[in-house]
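Hey, I'm writing a tutorial for new members on how sequence and structure tokens pair up, and I'd like a real worked example in the thread rather than a made-up one. If someone can provide the structure for the chain below, I'll link this post from the tutorial.
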Amino acid sequence: MKVLFIGGTGTISTAVSQLAVDSGIDLYLFNRGINSEFIPNGASVITCDINDFEKAKSLLDEHNFDVVVDWIAFSPSDIERDINLFKGKTKQFIFISSASVYQKPLEHYLITESTPILNPFWEYARNKIASENRLRDECSKSGFPYTIVRPSFTYGVTLIPAIVTNNKMPMTLIDRIRSGKKIIVPGDGTSLWVMTHNSDFAKGFVGLLGNKDAIGEVFHITSDEVLTWERIINTIGEVINVEPNIIHIPSDLINHYAPNIGAGLLGDKSTSVVFDNSKIKKFVPEFECTVKYKEGITRSLKWIESHPKYCGIDHENNAAIDKIISKYELSFE
């Protein structure tokens, strides 16, 4: 099976790329070559920016793929570009959407693929919804063979996923905890959340590649381990042997003082999420999540600390967090 990943070296896709190659898939990665250290042995690389349409088209014209996966499509214009590039040149196109598209607030706590999609709080989610709708429209018009996958918070060795921090610079949070600085947990900390290790996600995802029954279908792929945000932060503390100095602050207030942080809270992480994964398990019976959060972040911390370039501290994020805390505490004086 000949498969093209647009991207393929990101947080989620790195593990999928590796498992795809290990499974005997003839994998091509189409990307700019920035994260070349995460390209698995055995994958072919086409180095190009997918947004350079004419160059991308010329490089892809000689190829037909059984499956195309776009890991870096975020808007309907990205989908329009992909339709123009791959219509008639693939048997399956997989769009990486997001579990943030699900209705906010939820009418029912348990999320299935049939849960309505509606997110008035977060532009990122609204763009993903519009992208999904564009694919459905194209399928109706031309039979474009799409599959939609909605990850939730998925992480790998480069990431220690948490909340109200810069997850792309995870040592920022670790440094705050070790320094005894206050760590924000929105609300009262009891909201439920699901963290999925990329190696587990990959098991479900690779099972969808070339799966004819998955055409026209939507899947989320997440762990069944459900934690509160309080538990998530305290688990990080247990791994580094430092008790976090937690402060609870309402999400609305966080959004007021730092909208760049608050949009992702109100539009995603301040709402409890529990996923019913029975659909992906039906289509991919071998799918099973085995990496618990504590094990996953233990792996991540070990890897990050052995790779100095990933150990930077986001001082701007620290300043924004300190500002939120200061404003909140002043309101009680």
